[in-house]
Amino acid sequence: RLIEPVAASLPYMTCPGNHEERYNFSNYKARFSMPGNNEGLWYSWDLGPAHIISFSTEVYFFLNYGRHLVERQFHWLENDLQKANKNRAARPWIITMGHRPMYCSNADLDDCTWHESKVRKGLRGKFYGLEDLFYKYGVDLQLWAHEHSYERLWPIYNYQVFNGSREMPYTNPRGPVHIITGSAGCEERLTPFSLFPRPWSAVRVKEYGYTRLHILNGTHLHIQQVSDDQDGKIVDDVWVVRPLVGRMMYL
């Protein structure tokens, strides 16, 4: 109800998280009308030079609603990514957004700090994991939330840093760029970070704020983290640059 005035006048593309779980996500499904025929749990759309995919990480955690949802979504994702790669000439960027991150370095007991991410590796660590799938089809940028903080990773795959170069890590990166942006006003307070950042962690910000993404053209993305605690100060600013040629796969 609170978001209705915004959603009535601006594009407001949703992604289900753990707080939407009650009654098999029925309130989420009823209130938000997203593209496709999957009740808004997973869908994709095109925006300028980008193909954007929203999917549910929650199917991996609330298995009481059906394990078949994990399989259905996985096959849908693979089919959508195949089509997106064939359309790279028109829409060079592929961007995903899901709630629970594959990586994080927060000092809590959640899935991606002390435990292996189910989203990354799949059920039982081997069924329907998404990191290999997203890497195979060259996803450029992966947006996450859940952790109540902001964290930018170096380009990464399987815990290994794949920077474009030491001087320009985000120019022609050899792996996806992950951004965790979950600090936009949650009442549960901010999530602290572990004392020592992981080697793949580039920037960590424990402040309320939000992330701006400017898809400038087919080769340049501009990402900024805006701090609400500091009255709109830009606390992180990075460009991701990829050439148009040979960008389907990272290998």
TrEMBL record:
Organism: Mustela putorius furo (European domestic ferret)
Domain of life assignment: Eukaryota
Protein name, as recorded: Iron/zinc purple acid phosphatase-like protein
Keyword Glycoprotein attributed: yes
Secretion signal span: none
Keywords: Glycoprotein
Domain called Calcineurin-like phosphoesterase: residue spans: 5-150
Boundaries of every Purple acid phosphatase C-terminal domain copy: 175-236
The keyword DNA-binding is assigned to this record: no
MF terms in GO: hydrolase activity
Short name of any one Pfam family annotated for the protein: Metallophos_C
